[in-house]
Write a structure and sequence with these properties.
It contains four helices and no strands. By secondary structure, the chain is mainly α. α1 runs antiparallel to α2. The two termini are 33 Å apart.
């Protein structure tokens, strides 16, 4: 499967779960939305590494992944406090859900622009010769 399609499905599943949670009427619906969201989120764990390797080559993976973390951590850590702040200001989570849904739509649009980098297999050591 084209990794872009897999990421698109993962982001789309997360967005579907988010929307489900936003409109959940009752505990069972909330759990169902969380399960849908979780399936999409679980797909991102291996896909992030796959896309990083495809974009920058497997030999550069560690360096690139390490350079991405200072940008990723604040974004990940901001979501819940932002939702709480929005609730405190508005008395509702509707705006927070809308902000997060827009972020997912932006991610869905952005992933279509991804193009794998050149393969760097020739620069990899051949372990069979050792």
């Amino acid at each position: 499967v084209d990794p872009r399609v897999a990421v698109w499905i993962s982001f789309g599943t997360q967005l579907a779960g988010l929307v489900w949670i936003a409109f959940a009427a009752g505990e069972a619906a909330l759990f169902a939305g969380a399960a849908i969201f979780g399936l999409g989120m679980g797909g991102m764990v291996p896909l992030q590494g796959t896309l990083t390797g495809l974009a920058f080559g497997r030999l550069s993976y560690g360096k690139v992944a390490g350079q991405m973390r200072p940008f990723q951590v604040p974004i990940h850590a901001t979501g819940i406090p932002l939702a709480g702040w929005i609730f405190d200001r508005t008395g509702s989570y509707d705006t927070a859900f809308a902000v997060f849904a827009c972020a997912y739509l932006l991610a869905l649009a952005t992933i279509t622009l991804f193009r794998p980098g050149p393969t760097r297999a020739s620069s990899a050591p051949d372990l069979r010769e050792q």
